[in-house]
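Field reference: sequence -> structure
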Amino acid sequence: MLTGKALEAMLRSQLTAPAAIHKRRRVPAAQQAQARRWMRAVAGLGSGEYIVEGVSAKPNLFIVRKVEAGAAYKVRLGSGLPVCTCPDWKRHGHGHICKHIVMAQLTVPAVAYVGIRLEGEVPRVWVVRNTPPGMETVKPLRHIVRHSPTGFEWGYLGSGPSDLAYSILADYAGKDVADSLAVRFKEEVVARLPHAAWMLTEDALQAFLRRHPAAIPVQIPAPAYA
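Structure field:
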């Protein structure tokens, strides 16, 4: 079984351009720390190094457990700020998003798209699927090249965001929907994504599709956890 660090190294090797030659504007230290936590969360889930268990009697409570070490922390999601019992969260307090909170958030929807930007490296996007529940798979989002051969981008209007918008919609709802709505999706969603790290769940995608019905008939399944 790959460890989280091994999976992280493997995912980095799958990038479309060498990290060393990818130069972007400087990312603030706090955002870099956030992006690294998200990176560890994605790698930990994808490698099976961590498992997330829901508490049936309390729908917003999760146990995030490291398989080999046996360390386990409680994460509470819901309408307020998320809370975790890990030392990292306790050190920073309310408003802090530790890797365990990110893992719990990723296992709630059937599918989530995660973008992470580390300074000096190519921005990367993964698809986390949770079907059936408890069987998470993490894979890089397939880049459907239309405008940007060098990779994905977000946070502005341009060729990289155009390809990200198209690739997300094509993965979730099919290429016909992407052909119809990718421009709107870029303008309303992708151009506004946070610089360092972000997560789009199927709730956000379905809300967008309800606001802008595609020009073709399309059936979007209800969330598995509804």
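Note: Residues 4-211 form one domain.
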